[in-house]
Structure formats: C-alpha cells, structure tokens
Amino acid sequence: MPTVTTPETETGAVIDQRIDRVVPLTTPALLLHELPLGAPLTSAVLAGRRAVGRVLDHADDRLLVVVGPCSVHDPAAALDYARRLRVAADRHAEDLLVVMRVYFEKPRSTVGWKGLINDPALDGSGDVNRGLRTARALLLDVLRLGLPVGCEFLDPITPQYIADTVAWGAIGARTVESQVHRQLASGLSMPIGMKNRPDGSISTAVDAIRAAGVPHVFPGIDVSGTPAIMHTRGNADGHLVLRGGGGRPNYDAESVSGALDLLRKAGLPERVVVDASHANSGKDHRNQPKVAADVAAQLAAGQRGIVGIMLESFLLDGRQDLDPTRELTYGRSVTDACIGWDTTAEVLDHLASAVRTRRAALPTPA
C-alpha cells in the first residue's frame, strides 16, 4: 500500500531536523511581573540614563566609568563586588559617573561558556529560564544598592527581559556589523556604545552609530512574548567604543584623535569611550592600568573627546577555567582575566584626579 503523506508529516520531514528538544520560554511579561522594577528603581534607572546622556553630550564633565566582571558567573560574588563599587562610586561622585558592568551574555569565536543567561549552572545544561530569572534578580539587587548598570546586548530577544533595568548598553565587536543588532540598538531606551570590529576597523562602528540613529522596522517580540513588528525611532545616544584590534591598540592620543576625526566627518558627536581591556591591553589584564594611565594623561591634558572608559574588574585578579572536578575560586573571572579590586580602586583614584585636572584647565561651558 502506498504511504499516505499529510501536511503535518511533510512539515515534520523538513523542519527541526537538528533540534534535539524544545523547551517553552517564559514570557518577558511574566518575568517582569515576578521580579518587578517598581517605582523607586524605575526612577533610579531613568536618572542613570539621563546622567550617562549628559556625560555623552558634554553637559556633565565627569568621566563615565563602566567597570565590573567580564561576565557574571556567580551572582553572590557580583553583589559583593557591587557593594564595594558603591562605596568607591560615592567617593568619586563629583568626578566619575560609575556604572557597574553586569554582563550576562558571552560572545564566542568558537565554543565555550556563553554566559549566565544561557547556562546559569555552568555545566552545559542550558536552563535559560533560570538564567533569565537569575540575571534579572541580580540587576535589581545592584540597582537597590544605588548603582546604574551596563550590559552588552547579544541575543535580540533577551533585552525584553532585562533592558528596563539598564542605564548604558553596548553592541560588541563581533556584532557591530550586524544589521539585526543595529536595528535593535535603534530601539533600545538607553545610550548604546558601538565597539570597533575585532580587526580594528573603526569605520564599521561609526557606520553602526549612524545606522542605529535612524528609524527601523523589523520583526521581534513584544513584552508578552508575541511575535511583533517593531517600529523604532532611532537612538541619538550612540557613541564609539575603542577596544583595539588587528593586533594593535587604539587608546593612544593619536588613535583617539583619528577616531574623533572620523566621527566629525560622519556628522556625529565627537565622543569616545576607551575599553582598557581586549586588544587595547593585549589581552593581558595587567596592562589595563597602563591603558587607564594613558587615558588619564590625555584627560589631564584637556582631551574632552574621551567621555568614558571601560574596565574588566572583579574581586580577585586573573581568571580561572571551569573545571567540574574542582571548586571555583570565589571572586575570580571564568572568562576574560580581570584586574582585582585593590588595583581597581587605585585606577579609579587616578582617573578621578585626571578629571579634576581637566576641569581646572577647561571649565565646563555654561
């Protein structure tokens, strides 16, 4: 007898052939209901975004400092770090606008742990629902301490779950050329930094700033988790992040001047954030203070085009591998190597001093 083919069996023969299993994803609305931002924290997020915007627009002469772990793997250690950072942020409040780096998604060139949202158990189990809840709970805890938070947006769906808590965001070096991420940035509610490409191309990031600054229409999901067509207004708070690339740093005065010139020629605001890690540090965390010292010297010499700096920092310096046979060292990164807390405090002191020197030489325009 001939085999009877139905539309259902035909579809089953051509889709999901490499999908092992499908797990229902909690909706953004449900997670926001379970872990609400609430009125006081809403006000804090809005104040943080306004403060970042004022620094970017040179209306506030402080330096934006985005500092924290490469990627959060231990919420308890991250909150411990946040408590220390809050004290430092208060001490330097007149000179530095400190935003805690709270990254949950780790882009990978090949394979490896992809971050707390994707794998909160650090064992490959991929419990994304647990990861989203864990990430949002930590963000709320950091906000309650009085610190604004910064995140890199990698997956185009996850912002609906956490973006309401974020004061500053970034599009990474690997995704800055992606149309999907430029469209996403155009609709995000906070200032967005665009990193130069891993090969060092700055013009690509400049193009991304321009692209994200105009309206876009693209498919996505709304807060209920329903597929929707997103119509964006464009993000006027896009800015350039220099992270080095192609085996060369780009934080020195000549590189910064060249980047500002590219922004000027593109008709964009002249503002850059220097990433002290990645290619700028030669992927050696011990070089981050050297990068910060060079940036501080430029600030003290009157450079106003540098509006911020990024530091990868945790409780302990260095990094460690994920090893199921050994207990992890508390407060040490499992992704990129970070500078430890004592070094971080020294770097913040130095940056604050440089801002004061710049302020004395070049008073903020009225």
UniProtKB/TrEMBL annotation:
Record GO cellular component, one term: cytoplasm
Keywords: Amino-acid biosynthesis, Aromatic amino acid biosynthesis, Transferase
Pfam families: DAHP_synth_1
Gene Ontology molecular function: 3-deoxy-7-phosphoheptulonate synthase activity
GO biological process: amino acid biosynthetic process; aromatic amino acid family biosynthetic process; chorismate biosynthetic process
Keyword check for Amino-acid biosynthesis: yes
Catalytic activity annotation: D-erythrose 4-phosphate + phosphoenolpyruvate + H2O = 7-phospho-2-dehydro-3-deoxy-D-arabino-heptonate + phosphate
Family of the protein in this entry: Belongs to the class-I DAHP synthase family.
NCBIfam families: aroFGH, PRK12755.1
Function: Stereospecific condensation of phosphoenolpyruvate (PEP) and D-erythrose-4-phosphate (E4P) giving rise to 3-deoxy-D-arabino-heptulosonate-7-phosphate (DAHP).
Protein name: Phospho-2-dehydro-3-deoxyheptonate aldolase
Organism for this UniProt entry: Micromonospora halophytica
Organism lineage: Bacteria, Bacillati, Actinomycetota, Actinomycetes, Micromonosporales
